[in-house]
Amino acid sequence: MGSDKIETVELGTGGPRVGVQGLGCMGMSFAYGPTDADEARATLERARELGVTLFDTADMYGRGENEKFIAPFVRAHRDEVVLATKFAISPDPDHPDDPFKRVIRNDRAYIRQAVEGSLTRLGVDEIDLYYMHRRDVNVPIEESVGAMAELVAEGKVKHLGLSEVTAAELRAAHAVHPIAALQSEWSLFSRDIEDGVVQAAAELGVGLVPYSPLGRGFLTGAFVSADKELTQDDFRRTQPRFTGDNATANAALLEPVRTIAEAHGATPGQIALAWVQQQAAVHGAAVVPIPGTRKRSRVEENTSATRIRLSEQDLVLLEPIAGQVAGARYADMTHTSQGRS
């Protein structure tokens, strides 16, 4: 089994050493419809066996339930797991029963409240990587990162991360306290962070953690229609790329991915992941994608993609895809780096 293990990389200058692919845990208990809890737990274990060490959750995934779900696994393998969680997205007090209505908070009081909640739910004394999940533009980022730095000094957090910030915001934050990792959406379908953000991260020695590297499942080639394939509580129904004519148009963009997959004896999803992994060499930065899955077979498939090397010809064929995608990443892009750039 040892030969199946993925390689490791330092996530940012002075950051934790992790497997070159992590695991997004959100879907194990939140956002993508019904789950099989036993299979999800087995997936966590299989990922660990394959060398995955970065396990990613957030306090807003199921309003803390996702942190509780992975907590026994984290505690059982504490020395092997690099635990990442996030704060900033809070239930909207005006719509407390709607899981998709939320507010963003980056103020010091909220940060301190949030970290204590996460520590309690996870049952740990220290969080390895603590992210600001989204940016509240009403609070200077220097103040927010200053409050996060206090948590490092107090031993509650080891490393700091940011999610969906602009290049300028990353530079301002890094000047207050070293940022180990920047998490943003990055895939063959979503490449807006290459317009300055990736370059800033590489310059500052900040690791990149692409979420949704499979386009929330679109790049596996299995998705065709929201009406046919997504349950009513699947949040992808709120995303423009998955609805109506956009979904049909985007499904047609996968032909070169399928062609390359066939040539490599791989799946379309593996090619999409290999492309993201290969961006580390392209941009001179650590890149550790966190594809989410709740099935052992998928985590085996995903980690195998770390050993695929795409040719220059492959990269040329894949290059135009992002520019042809129909629909934005989110219905409201206000809280993304692209929306503020």
UniProtKB/TrEMBL annotation:
UniProt cross-references to CDD domains, sorted A to Z: AKR_AKR13A_13D
Entries under InterPro entries matching the protein: Aldo-Keto_reductase, NAD(P)_OxRdtase_dom_sf, NADP_OxRdtase_dom
Gene Ontology MF terms: oxidoreductase activity
Leader sequence segment: none
One GO cellular component, as annotated: cytoplasm
Keywords recorded for this protein, A-Z: Oxidoreductase
Residue ranges occupied by any NADP-dependent oxidoreductase domain in the UniProt entry: 22-316
Pfam families: Aldo_ket_red
Protein name, entry field: Aldo/keto reductase
Organism of provenance: Streptomyces angustmyceticus
